Amino acid sequence: MTTNQRGCLYGLILLVFGVFVCGLLPFVWLPGAGAAAAIPVIQVPGEVLIKNFLGLGPKFNLINTMVALIIVDVIVLLIALVGYRASKSYTNEIPGRFQGFLETLSGALYGFVKQISGGRNARSIFPLVATIFLFLLIGNWMSVIPGVESIGKFHCAHPNTSGYQGTRINDSLFQIRNTKPLNGGDQVTLEMEHECEAALAAATTEQLMSEDEAVNPLLIHRFHITPFVRPAATDLNLTIALALISFFFIQFYGFKEQGLNYMQKFIPIRSLGNVAKNPMGAIDLIVGPLELVSELSKIVSLSFRLFGNIFAGGILIAVMLFLVGTGIPIVFYALELIVGLAQALVFAVLTLVFISQAMEGHHGDEEHGEHAEAH
Fold this sequence. Notes:
The chain is mostly helical. The protein is built from 12 helices and 8 strands. The chain has 2 domains: 104 residues, no CATH class; 213 residues, no CATH class. Helix 8 packs antiparallel against helix 10 and helix 8 packs parallel to helix 11.
């Protein structure tokens, strides 16, 4: 068989496989099984799973992004504890595979932090930067785990959202029933939601298992699923909280390195006092407030950049699953891995750069001013 013949054979095999995976499965087999992909219900805030969680009050609800946050926290702590035990309290001189992997990763991160911030402050800044990077990397990559944003609480569809019929698998498991590809579902009103909840509460097991649309409330009313786990960074509350933590440490290291002189870039008292000798220093009176605005804008830029990229990635995957079902969305899962890594690295690196800039301050200007006064 020649190279061209082999290439044609492989191409034909890929074509047949592609038609089967991207055509027959999502548009024939899945709708026939009542499992065609439903259009996602897209909400910016995290969805409530349990109201009045643990009896802590009506305003304390368990939301799905909080579940993801807890899972990520546990994973990060487990990595630290397992690494601590594997290294025998950091005394093991012959590392195993896991210890070697952690040492390689942390060594690369520490070298980068040292290069940007300098050796004197690298040891104190490294834990913050490394923790932010590891936390966001695990949190962002949760979106590609099967079941995340797809398995959750089955309930009556909320008003002004699209709902679908349901089907009962067993005593505790339910599933969205969709027999039409590219089906956008039915819009639900407040009255429809109340009727659905009442009918579902009064239904018997026989009714819920019936295939008669006049009897089974799962077929009469419309439902959707609130995921148990939704990536934490798709909640603006988390990204703003991380941005505030980053902002706090930027100011902390600025004051730690320069003391009260750190405020000179916002309130240029020294430039105002030296305006007789250096009239151009009066420009600092305009630059100072702009520096303050720029400093505060870091909270917005850090939080919305992370939120926008991760939230948009989740929407892209959900939409592609609805349009195609199988096959092609794998490409977007791979893209999400790259975006998740990039956003974790960007947030950590920007925090490192901003801290380094805060510590540098205006040392060069101060030395130049002192040198001019000495002459």
